Amino acid sequence: MNTRILEVLPHCVGSLDVAPLIPERLLGMHESEIGDIPMAGNGRVRDCFSISGIDSDHLVIRAGSLRLDNVGNRMRSGKITIEGNCGSFAGHGMRGGEICVTGTAGDYAGCEMRGGMLDIAGNAGSFTGAALPGNMQGMRGGCVVIHGNAGDRAGDRMRRGSILIAGNTGAYCGSRMLAGTIVVKGRVGPLPGMELRRGTLIFHHVPSDMPATFQDCGLHRLLFLHLIEKELRKLGAPFSGFLPFATEVRRYCGDLAAGGFGEILVPGERQGV
């Protein structure tokens, strides 16, 4: 596969804002031109990275021990692979393309994204798919896939799109959600769906601390869950078999304090944790 490779130089430490390094911007540029791109507070690209590989729309960044912030900021096409960990704001505002992180991601991964795919092999921090402080809408399209755990407030103010979490989540998952879908295979932290207006939260385990403002609406057979399961199988392990309870679920409607048009779906055969 043709790739353009940027490898962090040994003298670089701490964190680095890589917002300028998106595939559509680098496509067709020579190595010397890429090297001249200014980096926020860190000179130019050549001061931070060695550049090699063939010109293509697939950019591989070998992070080493450096924390890379703003990976794929507002990207529209192509693919970025981060070999290592990335810092905050991975996929911020992305419109299309694909970002694959082989390690972990910091806070605000996928914040305000509108399209594309963000795949994180490890854990993600808090506010995944959320809105930036002061903004009213978070994720508005695309898909975030987390193979590890997610922190607090995943999907806060989410408007559209999907967040798939193979591990556990922190508190307030789906808080202030306007629409969209969040699926969690692991354990869910306290008070999921607080101020949920619309949207669907699908949990493999019944939350230990369900908000009092959700109404138990009984058992249901929902055909759309089979469609979700079909799409999840395409992602392979650990997402295949993600919804073994898809034939029957218990549905909680809420948040009744915010209109009550959202829903939390949990295994129908279980009444506790």
Helices and strands in order:
Blueprint (H helix, E strand, L loop, with lengths): L3 E5 L6 E3 L5 H4 L4 H5 L9 H4 E5 L4 E5 L4 E3 L9 E5 L14 E4 L15 E4 L19 E7 L13 E6 L15 E4 L15 E4 L11 E6 L3 H10 L15 E6 L7 E6 L6
Parallel strand pairs: 1-4, 2-5, 4-6, 6-7, 7-8, 8-9, 9-10, 10-11, 11-12, 12-15
Antiparallel strand pairs: 1-3, 13-14, 14-15
Please tag this protein with its features.
273 residues, mainly beta, Pectate Lyase C-like, 4 helices, 15 strands
Structure notes:
It contains four helices and 15 strands. With 273 residues, it is mostly beta strands. The protein has two domains: 1-57, no CATH class; 70-267, 3 Solenoid (Pectate Lyase C-like), CATH 2.160.20.60. The strands form two sheets. The chain has a 13-stranded mixed beta sheet with strand order 3-1-4-6-7-8-9-10-11-12-15-14-13. The model has no long low-confidence stretch (mean pLDDT 91).
Q: Brief overview, please?
A:
By secondary structure, this protein is mainly β. The chain is built from four helices and 15 strands.
